[in-house]
């Protein structure tokens, strides 16, 4: 089957082949907010706006709640991954995918939405780190393709692939730490290193799971998606992946820490792994 | 001078709105359910208004707006995910809180297989395929929407259609119908 023939098949399931059929649809027209450039009376288009009453006050209340909760979280102690020190308050947002980052305090927005406050904050101490869409990566000259890197991601997962290495379908991510953890634990091809276990980590209760990447699942197969445009696949057989599925005040957040395969000589990977552990010691997740 | 500037902005926005409103609404309706699509369309044009100074002139205007719509939809999807418990409960009660717009045009098992195969693509690849097959954008325009290089778009389209071909070829006969229409305008 040629690519044009495939394209024709995809065109056949276009829900709106011809936008002109929408000509009579009464579209919700934006009524513009006051802006520094325009008077309210200068609204360019008249129309009805979908009711968004209460949004402003809700954001205000949420912001106040966040301030209170952040204070509580920073004093919270956990049993498994207790932050060694609270990250500096001047943490800055990660600069975007594959940008080199210098030592300092950073935060990853767990859902890529600036209107929500949930974030993972951590301190980078060494050199060689790069930012990802929802985390950080430190690799080596041998490159990511060999699995010789360490990475940390802090995300709200959208979808999990049920049998990712075998072309399985995606499913909406579980909405609790337990149901999300169960989805990952049920992926048939991955090798379980540590079974799904209740834990308290990074200031929150949840579940921990340790897997390693199987052969035949290193060719770009998507395993999960989430965060800011994030879609995750793995690169090398034997890569060790640790997951923490956490209930962060009702929001399910996943922390993923990736380590090189055990087949890689220990002295080559040791520095990377030590750097990742140092990083994990500083991670705090705030709602 | 200020009033003149405001009048100019208003005029420019109205032109953009009238020329592209239906295309952007269609873009949204192809991806999410009706009420949410209307919201997303309105939100998209709100961003256009706020960033009117940055809005490129034709022919780059529409791809630029699609890029905004894509991000608006992404934020809506995340917000919907956070309402997941309600979604699960409604589903349990037999109430469908949302639908896939593709469901309305799927006719028969072949279409269903195509829809499923497209849904299994990686999100980025899926969006690129839709921009190619549904919005009829050129490769250059797709690279504008996705913020990628032209080479990256070419590679992803090739890979995505290869994958779809492998999945669909054993079970579906290709359409032997009119040639692929000229691209450039929906």
List keywords for this structure.
heterodimer, A: 287 residues, alpha+beta, 8-stranded antiparallel β-sheet, 4-stranded mixed β-sheet, 4 helices, 16 strands, 20% helix, B: 186 residues, mainly alpha, Rna Polymerase Sigma Factor, Chain: A, Arc Repressor Mutant, subunit A, 2 domains, 68% helix, elongated, disordered C terminus
Question: Please, could you describe this protein's structure?
Answer:
The complex is a heterodimer of chains A (287) and B (186). Chain A is of the alpha+beta class. Chain A is 20% helix and 30% strand. Chain A has one domain. In chain A, a hairpin with a 3-residue loop joins strand 12 and strand 13. Helix content of chain B is 68%, strand content 0%. The longest helix of chain B has 28 residues. The radius of gyration of chain B is 19 Å and the shape is elongated. The C terminus of chain B is likely disordered. Classes of the chains: A alpha+beta (287), B mainly alpha (186).
Q: What are the secondary-structure elements of chain B, in order, as H or E?
A: HHHHHHHH
Alpha-carbon distance between the two ends of chain B:
37 Å
Q: In the CATH hierarchy, what is the architecture of the largest domain in chain B at level 2?
A: Orthogonal Bundle
Mean pLDDT of chain B: 78
Q: State the total count of DSSP E strands of chain A.
A: 16
* Count of folded domains of chain A: 1
Q: Give the proportion of residues in helices of chain B.
A: 55-70%
- The rounded Rg of chain A comes to 22 Å
Count of DSSP H/I helices of chain B: 8
**Percentage of residues in helical conformation of chain A:** 10-25%
Could you name the ranges of chain A where pLDDT drops below 50 across 5 or more consecutive residues? 31-79, 84-88
- SS summary, helix count of chain A: 4
Q: How many individual β-strands of chain B? A: 0
Q: What structural class do you assign from the helix and strand content of chain B? A: mainly alpha
CATH topology of the largest domain in chain B: Rna Polymerase Sigma Factor, Chain: A
Shape of chain B: elongated
Query: How would you name the CATH homologous superfamily of the largest domain in chain B?
Result: RNA polymerase sigma factor, region 2, helix turn helix motif
Shape of chain A: globular
Structural class of chain A: alpha+beta
